[in-house]
Structures are given as structure tokens and as C-alpha cells.
């Protein structure tokens, strides 16, 4: 009888192929503690990212504060109707006494007198307020004559002015990407070393069908680093905070109207739209930038007007109105009531006039260049993430329309607006993968302007907006 | 025991517990600690067996087992339910052991082939040898011979695959295997006092 024989390979394979031995108990304890420490490590990495983001944000703010990108040519001291003392509306006597300093049309004198009168007793406060209002108008008008080239658009004076914000933003995007890449490397060091080195050849012995390939879903997610997204959103505007004194004239009611109602400003809801490109730094972090269009609209009723023709020496009917977002200079004011108001003896003497049935609509248009980071909490067919970033907003349109009982009677623009302002956004990004490449996203976002839209130092107009952004994203590769 | 997962209830050969593998894996993906414990308890013995073969002693094997399981739990979402989970797990353990080996050992190409005079062991003789004894012998092999022999003879890799894995040439792999066989064979004969007449010599 033939006995079965084995060579050395078979001997070891047979005896050790299925060999089992219980490991010591402490191995499991060690594994558990390692798993736990990894979680803490991940939390630490997240905090590290958040810390870096905060540092970038602070550095950005510091840079902005030191460079202070205000528009040039306006001396803020002369640009404010400033009244420090208590001034009460005087409905009984609607015509205010004249300011003798302004009568002579000498702006420089008026400014000097303002400083002087402010230091005096409260009795001269009304006069001083009007005095400061007047030179204000002249400065704004002069400034406009330099900048305003086409009706409602403020154009940049030089090409450099226009391109600077773009260059600045590109630089920020590059820095952000580098930093996040560096952080991402730390957090995924172990993962990468394993994935790169892990062989994928199957063991022949154990299973014929053990052709384990990486999870298809995950590999798809990792392959497309670049994506592009079209966004559209209704914008719900909150009333911007205004702690400035531009609205001081609300308190003076002068002229032909019978009842003096308080001036009231309401914001309107608008839309925002644009394109953003995204770069997936790692499995969870996406950096985005692009170009968006957005606008701000507000309507002021029961406005107070100031005739500026006399002050500036210009001919024709031009007027100045005061709103929470700044003073609005209007030209070509027509319409029976307006004309009569503006040509009234009170206005010729540089009084503020309260008008009834008139509305002033202001619109500011911005091109927004956002730099955003999205941290994905869930990244599957349905994804969810936290979104935050900073945007550079470039003023491309500035328009103000004065209407009287529904008819347009004058047009102009809000003066002293900054050409470049910055805003911060935070939000939640929810996505649904329609196909491997196309994702539908809905993002509730809160946007707040970080600096005042107005260059006038006394006007702090920093509106907040709520957006519900709907987007369609397309992933490349 | 190596059935596809999905509809599989696994019974431990020691009848200690039963687990629904698919459900346990899914729970592990979401970080469920109880599921991790169950999975560990089920596979720890087998995986420790694998690690022991690739290590010089129990301490090294425990380290590799520990590192291997941490990887299993952190990368379990990449399993994807394609193929055998146990096969996937074993590969993780082998890769962990190989990485450790690469870190601590420089590979010198050994191209000279030696003639291996193979012997055939009788089944009666084999039955007298225990797995633990053979494990001890395999652990005493020089590291690179141990790796190549394990990969070729027990896991079933080809020389081409081993060469790719270990960044050596196919020739080196073959040479290392021959040397490993010579050493193992010699030790088996010596340790277990096999008489010449119980083995048959062949050239391979």
C-alpha cells in the first residue's frame, strides 16, 4: 500500500495554513485605545484647520484694516452732516433761520464755521448742522464730476483699480490651498502610506473570488478633484445697521408739505447668481472660488431733500437726500412738486425740505469674488457640509431713482460708496448626487458685510443677507 | 468558512459565538464598539496565526496584529463587500507584516541559485509533527526567507507577485525560496529525528 507523501511546502501549508492561536488579552485593549486616540487625533486636526482658518481670517482683517481700501478724494471730515447736540423736530416753525456763512457760497468758510459752531453752545446746533451739510454736497459733487462718467455706473479710474481685487483674491486662494494641503497631508499620512503600499493581489489560496477592489463609491468620490458649479439664489436682505449720522436731516422738516412723517427706509429682496470652481483638497475639504453677481436695493419714503445748486454754484435742479446707506446726490430733478419744492425760497436758502409722496430707490450692484472652504461631514449620495468664506465685493453699479407718485422725477447715485468691500459667509451645504458627475446642491447661507459699504467714516452700513443658494455642480475626471 | 458575506452567519469553530458578518461589518463602518469587539473576537485567532508566521516571535506578531486590526477598523469602509472579508483581512495582516519587515530589513539581491534536494515526507511521520513545532521552525528562518516562503508556499503567490511586493527580482525570490526550503527541510529532519528511509529525496 502506497502511503501519501508530502514535500516541505505541503507539510507547512497543511499544518500552518489554518493555524490559529488566541492572542493575549491586552492586544485588544491596545487596539481599542489606539482607535480612540485616532479619533482624538482627527478632532485635533479639525481644530487645527479651524485655527488656521481663523488665523487667515484675522490676518486678512488686519491687512484690510491697515491698507484701508477707501476710495480717494473725499475728506470724511467734510462729508458728514454732524450734529452732536439734541435736536428736536420743530413742526410749528418749519422754516429755519438762514446760515449767514453759507449765503456767500464760500465752502471753505462754511467748513471753518462748522468746527467753530460745534464747539459753541447748543443754540447754534441747527445752524451748524446745515452748515456742515452744505460743504458736504459740494465735495460729493466735485468727486462725482471726476468719477461719474455714465449716468448710473461708477467706473474705475484706472485699470489697476479694477484688477487689484482680482489679484488679491487669487493670492488668497493660492495661500489657502497651500495651507489646507499641508494640513491635509498630516491628517492623511497614515491612510496614504497604507493605501499606496497595500498590494491588491488576491491570495490564491483563500478565495478564488477574492478580487477585492476598492469601494467603487469612494473611488469615484476621490477621482474628481475639480468641479464647477452654477449658483442661483434669492437674497433676503436685512436692514443694515446704521449708527452714523447721515440721517440727521430726518429731524428737520422744512418746506411745503403739511405733515412731517418720519423718513422710512426699507430693503428689498434681490437675486444673486454666478459660477464657482471647486478644488477637492482631500476627502472632506473643498476650496471654492468664482464670480457672483449680487445687488442690494432699498427704498426710502418721505425723504428730506436739500438743494445743492446754490451751494455748488451749478445751474439746474440738483438735490441731496440723506439715507441710512449714505447721502444721495440727485440731478435733473423734474416734476411739478419737486421743482416747486426745490425752487422754493426755503430751498434757495439751503434748507432741507421734506417731501410727500416721493420715493427714493437706491440700487447697488456688486461683482462678488468668493473664497470659500467646505468641510464635508457626510460625503455620500446625499452629502452635507459646513461652508464658510470671505468674499471681495466690487461695486459695479450705483443708481438712485427719485419718483413722485410713481413717476420718475430725478436720478443720481449714492455718494461716497466704497469700490471694494468685504463680506463673510457661513452656511450649510446639502447635496444630492444626480449622477456620478452632477450634484444638485441647496445651501442656506448667511452673509454679512465686514466693512461699511459707505466710505464715509460716520456711516456704518453693514447689511446682512440670507441666501438660499441652489446650485448644479459638475465634477471633472 | 470562506463563503461570500451578505447572507452569512459565521459560527466559530470553538462554538463560542455566532455573528452576522455583514451586519457586523456595517456596524463597524459606523464605528460601533460592540461590533468591533465581536469582529475582533471572531477573527483574532486566525489573524494572530497569520502574524505569527511572518514574525520572529510572539511580541512582533502581537505588534503586527494590533497594527493590522487598527487598519482593518479604520479602512473597513473600503472593503466594499466584494470577495471574502477574511481574505481581505488576511491581506491587511500580511501587508502590515511586510511593511514592518521592509522597515527593518534591507534586501540584498541573492541571485545564485542553489540546488534544492527535496524530500518527501510520509504521512505517518507528518502526523507526529505539531503546528506549533513547525511555527517555531519557520520563525527562526532569516527574515527574507521567511517572507518569501510564507508568501509562496502558504499564501500561494507567484514569484512575479512576490517580486513586485517585496521590490526584488524574480530570481531573488526563487533563490530565497530555495534557501528557505533547504533550511526548513534540514531542521524538520533534525528536530524530529526522521530516519533517511522515511524520506524520499528528489531534485527540484
Span of the ends, CA to CA of chain A: 66 Å
What is the count of helical runs of chain A?
11
> What is the averaged pLDDT score of chain A?
66
CATH topology of the largest domain in chain B: Rna Polymerase Sigma Factor, Chain: A
CATH class of the largest domain in chain B: Mainly Alpha
- The CATH class of the domain at 44-75 and 149-186 and 223-475 in chain A, by name, is Mainly Beta
- What's the name of the CATH homologous superfamily of the largest domain in chain B? RNA polymerase sigma factor, region 2, helix turn helix motif
Can you tell me the CATH topology of the domain at 44-75 and 149-186 and 223-475 in chain A?
Porin
| Helical content of chain A (DSSP H or I, runs of 4+) | 25-40%
The counted number of beta strands of chain B is 4
Q: What count of structural domains of chain B? A: 2
CATH architecture of the largest domain in chain B: Orthogonal Bundle
Query: How much is the radius of gyration of chain A in Å?
Result: 33 Å
Oligomer: heterodimer
The chain-level mean pLDDT of chain B equals 79
Pairing-aware structural class of the strands and helices of chain A? alpha+beta
Structural class of chain B: mainly alpha
The helix fraction of chain B, in percent, is 55-70%
Provide an overview of this structure.
- The complex is a heterodimer of chains A (477) and B (204).
- Chain A has 477 residues and is α+β, with helices and mostly antiparallel strands.
- Chain A has a domain at 44-75 and 149-186 and 223-475: Beta Barrel (Porin).
- Chain A has 11 helices and 17 strands.
- In chain A, the strands form 2 sheets. In chain A, strands 4-6-7-12-13-15-16-17 form an 8-stranded antiparallel β-barrel.
- The longest helix of chain A has 43 residues, at 25-67.
- The model of chain A is unreliable at 68-157, 187-222, 240-259 and 311-316 (pLDDT under 50).
- In chain B, strands 1-2 form a two-stranded antiparallel sheet. A two-stranded antiparallel ribbon of chain B has the order 3-4.
- Chain B contains 9 helices and 4 strands, in the order ββααααβαααααβ.
- In chain B, 61% of the residues lie in helices and 8% in strands.
- In chain B, helix 2 (33-53) packs across helix 3 (58-74) and helix 3 packs across helix 4.
- Chain B starts with 8 loop residues before the first strand and ends with a strand.
- Chain B has helices spanning 21-29, 33-53, 58-74, 85-104, 123-127, 131-139, 143-155, 159-166, 170-191; strands at 9-11, 18-20, 117-122, 199-203.
- Strand 1 of chain A pairs antiparallel with strand 3 (117-122) of chain B, so a sheet runs across the interface.
Amino acid at each position: 500500500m502506497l502511503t501519501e507523501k508530502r514535500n516541505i511546502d505541503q507539510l507547512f501549508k497543511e499544518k500552518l495554513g489554518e493555524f490559529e492561536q488566541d492572542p493575549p488579552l491586552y492586544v485588544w485593549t491596545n487596539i481599542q485605545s489606539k482607535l480612540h486616540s485616532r479619533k482624538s487625533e482627527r478632532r485635533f486636526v479639525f481644530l487645527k484647520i479651524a485655527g488656521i482658518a481663523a488665523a487667515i481670517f484675522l490676518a486678512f482683517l488686519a491687512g484690510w484694516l491697515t491698507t484701508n481700501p477707501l476710495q480717494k478724494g473725499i475728506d470724511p471730515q467734510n462729508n458728514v452732516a454732524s450734529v452732536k447736540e439734541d435736536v428736536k423736530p420743530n413742526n410749528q416753525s418749519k422754516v429755519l433761520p438762514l446760515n449767514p456763512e453759507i449765503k456767500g457760497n464760500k465752502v471753505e468758510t462754511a467748513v471753518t464755521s462748522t468746527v467753530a459752531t460745534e464747539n459753541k453752545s447748543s443754540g447754534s446746533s441747527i445752524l451748524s448742522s446745515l452748515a456742515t451739510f452744505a460743504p458736504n454736497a459740494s465735495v460729493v459733487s466735485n468727486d462725482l464730476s471726476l468719477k461719474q462718467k455714465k449716468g448710473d455706473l461708477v467706473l474705475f479710474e484706472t485699470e489697476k483699480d479694477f484688477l487689484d481685487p482680482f489679484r488679491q483674491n487669487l493670492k488668497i486662494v493660492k495661500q489657502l490651498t497651500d495651507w489646507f494641503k499641508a494640513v491635509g497631508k498630516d491628517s492623511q499620512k497614515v491612510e496614504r502610506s497604507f493605501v499606496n503600499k497595500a498590494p491588491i493581489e488576491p491570495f490564491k489560496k483563500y478565495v478564488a473570488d477574492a478580487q477585492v477592489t476598492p469601494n467603487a463609491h469612494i473611488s469615484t468620490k476621490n477621482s474628481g478633484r475639480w468641479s464647477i458649479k452654477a449658483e442661483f439664489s434669492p437674497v433676503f436682505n436685512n436692514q443694515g445697521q446704521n449708527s452714523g449720522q447721515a440721517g440727521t436731516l430726518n429731524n428737520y422738516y422744512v418746506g411745503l408739505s403739511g405733515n412731517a412723517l418720519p423718513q422710512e427706509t426699507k430693503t428689498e429682496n434681490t437675486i444673486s447668481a454666478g459660477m464657482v470652481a471647486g478644488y477637492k483638497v482631500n476627502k472632506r475639504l473643498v476650496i471654492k472660488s468664482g464670480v457672483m453677481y449680487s445687488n442690494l436695493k432699498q427704498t426710502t419714503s418721505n425723504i428730506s431733500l436739500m438743494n445743492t445748486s446754490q451751494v455748488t454754484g451749478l445751474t439746474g435742479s440738483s438735490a441731496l437726500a440723506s439715507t441710512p446707506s449714505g447721502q444721495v446726490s440727485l440731478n435733473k430733478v423734474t416734476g411739478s412738486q419737486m421743482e416747486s419744492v426745490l425752487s422754493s425760497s426755503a430751498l434757495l436758502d439751503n434748507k432741507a425740505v421734506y417731501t410727500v409722496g416721493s420715493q427714493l430707490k437706491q440700487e447697488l450692484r456688486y461683482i462678488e469674488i468668493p473664497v470659500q472652504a467646505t468641510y464635508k461631514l457626510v460625503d455620500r449620495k446625499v452629502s452635507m457640509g459646513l461652508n464658510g468664506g470671505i468674499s471681495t465685493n466690487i461695486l459695479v453699479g450705483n443708481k438712485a431713482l427719485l419718483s413722485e407718485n410713481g413717476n420718475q422725477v430725478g436720478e443720481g447715485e449714492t455718494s461716497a460708496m466704497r469700490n471694494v468691500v468685504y463680506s463673510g459667509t457661513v452656511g450649510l451645504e446639502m447635496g444630492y448626487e444626480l449622477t456620478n458627475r452632477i450634484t444638485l446642491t441647496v445651501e442656506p447661507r448667511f452673509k454679512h458685510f465686514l466693512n461699511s459699504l459707505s466710505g464715509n467714516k460716520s456711516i456704518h452700513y453693514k447689511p446682512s443677507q440670507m441666501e438660499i443658494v441652489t446650485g448644479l455642480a459638475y465634477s471633472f475626471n | 468558512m470562506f463563503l461570500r458575506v451578505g447572507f452569512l452567519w459565521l459560527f466559530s469553530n470553538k462554538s463560542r459565538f455566532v455573528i452576522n458578518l455583514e451586519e457586523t461589518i456595517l456596524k463597524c463602518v459606523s464605528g460601533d464598539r460592540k461590533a468591533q469587539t465581536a469582529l475582533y473576537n471572531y477573527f483574532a485567532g486566525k489573524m494572530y496565526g497569520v502574524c505569527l508566521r511572518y514574525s520572529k516571535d510572539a511580541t512582533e506578531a502581537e505588534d503586527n496584529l494590533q497594527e493590522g486590526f487598527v487598519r482593518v477598523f479604520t479602512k473597513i469602509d473600503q472593503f466594499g463587500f466584494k470577495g471574502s472579508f477574511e481574505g481581505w483581512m488576511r491581506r491587511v495582516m500580511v501587508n502590515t507584516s511586510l511593511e514592518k519587515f521592509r522597515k527593518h530589513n534591507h534586501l540584498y539581491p541573492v541571485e545564485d541559485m542553489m540546488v534544492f534536494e527535496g524530500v518527501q515526507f510520509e504521512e505517518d511521520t507528518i502526523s507526529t509533527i505539531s503546528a506549533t513545532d513547525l511555527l517555531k521552525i519557520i520563525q527562526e528562518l532569516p527574515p527574507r526567507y521567511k517572507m518569501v516562503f510564507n508568501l509562496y508556499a502558504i499564501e500561494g503567490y507567484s514569484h512575479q507577485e512576490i517580486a513586485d511586493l517585496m521590490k526584488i527580482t524574480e530570481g531573488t525570490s526563487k533563490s530565497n525560496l530555495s534557501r528557505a526550503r533547504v533550511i526548513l527541510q534540514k531542521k524538520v529532519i533534525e528536530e524530529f529525528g526522521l530516519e533517511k528511509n522515511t524520506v524520499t529525496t528528489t531534485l527540484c
